[in-house]
Design goal:
Largest sheet: 5 strands, mixed
CATH architecture of one domain: Orthogonal Bundle
Radius of gyration: 60 Å
Oligomer: single chain
Shape: elongated
Structural class: alpha+beta
Strand order of the largest sheet: 5-7-8-9-10
Strand content: 5-15%
Number of helices: 17
Number of strands: 16
Distance between the termini: 105 Å
Helix content: over 70%
Length: about 800
């Protein structure tokens, strides 16, 4: 019995020792894993804090960019409104300018055609322009200038005198009268500058009268040589404010001079009054003033229009700049939002990993604590087993002594006991081994259960995330359905608006057609009005001519026959056939006119004309000869130009094909004439096919490919006519790095005939350069030139130069 207990105690001691060793190994392994987990947790906590800081900064940046976008949108609306207002103002001013120009052209045409002037004035002025008359200064209305506000009063004051013709001398007036007689041009009154004397109105206190504006001659202006004409016609005429003021002034001065009001009413010398509605058909004085005013107004309007166009252009540029800035800011916002979404996902993943790591650390601590408790328990069991073993050994010794004293067969029993004990111990060892395996399996089962719990927790978290994502997907799908419904609704509204727009466009076309018809009708009515105006002017002129004829007949009756109208009517005989009498009169006048005057200088005039004819004939022959020589030279030059062009074009075409292949690394390219039959006026077609591409039109090429084609063509031309010096300004800016290197290498091959100066920011071009120049501004307003020679740098660095 004691032996059995002793064996049990040994077994317990050995089992405890083995379990303690195994548990210590596991504790050591868990401790190492715990340290690694703690380090990982710290690392994840730092990463999480960094993510939190970055997310906060990113959200602040997004808020700032959103505010900037709102500000830019408001600014863009302001710029658009400003641009549209300037555009509307510019269009309005342009229309006003065109209207003024149209009116100026109309008035200048009237002025050029002498509309409103009598036939005699037109005949004299046209003869003066053609050189047939000399010394003619023009009608009175053209030699004086009248402010527009006094135009009606001065026209009324002048009356028919507006059409009096001013001449330099009395002889010039006689020549003009003779010309009118010879050309049957009518009658006119002439004012020679050397005979007309000034007339002045001298009345004391005239300026102090109420309603007095001024003496008519003082209100007008003219050149100094026409002062006497102006004073003679208007020097004794007063301009008053209204008829009442004019009558009061006339009464005060006993009706000694003529007074005209601003609205054209007249108080004549002697007391008679002339007035009524105004005849505004001519406006001879105001027309020139109106043209001048309109030109000044047009100039001012054109300046305002140019300023408005400039402001509109500046506003459009500002709008484009703000729009570009807004697009860039929106792109930044989109990028920031994408970065925010990506960083939030990474932050959530980091937090999940941190949570899992902390949970694993807790499990590690629990297992370490559990294993430590087991080690303590096993140590206590081992200590108890040792004490119990020692006690049993003492009891066994005592029992053996007692047994030895009782029996003599101690050795045999000891052997049996040892054999049984050995068998028992083997069985115990087998039991201990099995128990150890059971404990190991239980530990592994426990570890697996803990891991399974961790994985289950993680699985539950992942399932929760999956459910969350499913909910979000459902919400997003719901939003998508709502947006699709809104899109459908908007599409229907768009269709309705498009139908409405089509209807409005139809109405607009109808109204535009009606507007065209109305404008056509307006032009017709305007033409009719102008025709009616010209007809009215013609009738007025005819009336004046008839009145002049009547006056001339009355004057002729008195001057030649000293008869008044009444006396002539009493003595007149009835003419049975006035047409026959007029015909006879015309025949007699024609016979007298046919007699003409004897020209005593006809021989000298013929000689002079003959000499001039011979001179001019010689000149014409020389000109025709020069013309034929020039035409022959042009033909020769054209032929030579065609030959040189064809030769150069073929050579350029060959060089272009070769250059294109070198720059593009393959492909085909050629040049052709669009009109070979007309070489000098023909266009040039550029046909290129980069390697791996079939290009129908140059627009199908990218920007860089277009630039490289242009460079290839330029180098092809330079091969035909190499220039000693060439400046290039960033022509390779649109190329990628590979093509920049090809361009730079090819340009290097041409340096034996041409020196290149390249303005560039591309590294490949700068690497091939012999000398680099840079401009810097260290001090404000002071530029400094920096020079860098690649050969010197290569020598210093020990690099072999190209």
């Amino acid at each position: 019995m004691l032996t059995t207990k002793s064996a049990d105690a040994r077994v317990i001691d050995m089992t405890a020792e083995s379990s303690i060793s195994d548990l210590e190994e596991r504790i050591e392994s868990l401790t190492t894993a715990n340290k690694d987990g703690i380090a990982r947790v710290h690392e994840l906590e730092e990463i999480s804090e960094e993510y939190t800081t970055n997310l906060t900064n990113l959200r602040e940046e997004i808020t700032s960019i959103t505010n900037s976008i709102q500000g830019l949108e408001l600014k863009l609306q302001s710029k658009a409104h400003k641009r549209d207002s300037y555009k509307a103002e510019s269009d309005r001013l342009l229309l006003d300018s065109k209207e003024h120009i149209r009116k100026i052209n109309f008035l200048e045409n009237l002025e050029r055609n002498l509309e409103g002037f009598s036939k005699s004035v037109k005949v004299v002025v046209n003869a003066s322009k053609s050189g047939r008359l000399k010394g003619v200064c023009g009608p009175v209305s053209r030699v004086i200038s009248v402010p527009q506000k006094y135009g009606v009063a001065i026209e009324t004051a002048l009356g028919a005198a507006m059409q009096n013709i001013v001449t330099e001398t009395e002889n010039d007036a006689k020549s003009a009268i003779a010309y009118l007689k010879s050309s049957d041009g009518g009658r006119a009154t002439f004012l020679p500058l050397n005979t007309i004397k000034a007339r002045e109105l001298r009345e004391n206190g005239l300026e102090a009268n109420y309603g007095f504006i001024g003496v008519a001659s003082d209100l007008c202006s003219c050149d100094n040589k026409f002062k006497n004409i102006l004073s003679s016609l208007l020097g004794k005429i007063v301009i008053a404010d209204n008829l009442n003021s004019a009558v009061e002034i006339a009464k005060k001065y006993s009706y000694r001079f003529k007074i005209v009001t601003l609205d054209g009413q007249v108080v004549n010398a002697g007391g008679s009054l002339t007035g009524g509605s105004l005849n505004r058909n001519t406006g001879l004085l105001s027309r020139a003033s109106e043209i001048k005013d309109l030109k000044e107004q047009t100039k001012a309007i054109e300046e305002k229009s140019a300023q408005a166009q400039r402001l509109c252009s500046e506003a459009a540029q500002d709008y484009a700049a703000v729009e570009a800035e807004l697009l860039g800011t929106r792109a930044d916002l989109s990028n920031k939002k994408q970065s925010l979404a990506r960083m939030e996902a990474e932050s959530r993943a980091c937090e999940n990993e941190l949570s899992n790591s902390k949970l694993a650390l807790q499990n590690f601590d629990k297992q370490i604590e559990e294993y430590t408790n087991k080690v303590n328990i096993l140590s206590e069991d081992r200590k108890n087993a040792g004490e119990q073993l020692a006690q049993l050994n003492r009891r066994i010794s005592e029992a053996e002594e007692k047994v030895n004293s009782i029996t003599g067969s101690r050795a045999k029993m000891i052997e049996e006991r040892e054999e049984i004990a050995s068998q028992l111990q083997n069985v115990r060892l087998e039991i201990v081994t099995a128990q150890k395996d059971i404990d190991a399996l239980n530990s592994e089962i426990l570890f697996a259960e803990n891991s399974s719990n961790n994985f289950g927790e993680k699985q539950r978290e992942l399932n929760a995330q999956i459910e969350d994502y499913k909910n979000k997907n459902a919400l997003i799908q719901k939003n998508i359905d709502e947006l699709e419904a809104q899109i459908k609704d908007k599409s229907e509204k768009i269709a309705e608006h498009n139908a409405r727009i089509s209807s409005i466009n139809c109405e607009k076309d109808t109204y535009e057609m009606r507007s065209v018809e109305l404008r056509t009708l307006e032009r017709d009515k305007t033409s009719e009005r102008e025709v009616s105006g010209r007809e009215l002017s013609r009738l007025e002129e005819r009336k004046i001519n008839l009145q002049n004829q009547y006056d001339n007949i009355i004057s002729k009756l008195w001057e030649e026959y000293e008869l008044t109208k009444r006396e002539a009517e009493e003595q007149a005989i009835e003419i049975p056939d006035s047409n026959a009498a007029q015909k006879r009169l015309n025949e007699l006048k024609q016979k007298i006119k046919n007699l003409g005057n004897v020209n005593v200088s006809a021989i000298e005039e013929y000689k002079e004309v003959s000499e001039r004819f011979e001179f001019m004939s010689t000149q014409v022959n020389d000109v025709e000869k020069s013309k034929r020589e020039i035409e022959r030279l042009i033909t020769d030059l054209t032929k030579q130009m065609k030959e040189v062009f064809v030769e150069s074009f073929e050579e350029i075409n060959k060089n272009f094909t070769f250059t294109f292949k070198e720059l593009f690394g393959g492909g085909t390219a050629s040049l052709s004439l669009s009109e070979p039959e007309d070489i000098l006026n023909s266009g040039i077609d550029i046909i290129v096919h980069p390697p791996g591409k079939i290009v129908v039109h140059l627009d199908a090429l990218s920007g860089g490919e277009k630039a490289l084609v242009a460079i290839a063509l330029y180098f092809a031309i330079m091969k035909v006519r190499p220039a000693p010096f060439c400046v290039m300004d960033e022509i390779e800016a649109a190329l990628d790095d590979v093509n920049v290197d090809r361009f730079a290498n090819y340009m290097r091959n041409l340096t034996h005939t041409t020196q290149f100066i390249c303005i560039t920011h591309r590294r490949g071009t700068m690497e091939e350069a012999d000398v680099l120049y840079g401009v810097t501004m260290q001090d404000e307003g002071v530029s400094k030139l920096l020079e860098l020679r690649s050969t010197e740098i290569a020598e210093k660095l020990g690099i072999k130069a190209n």
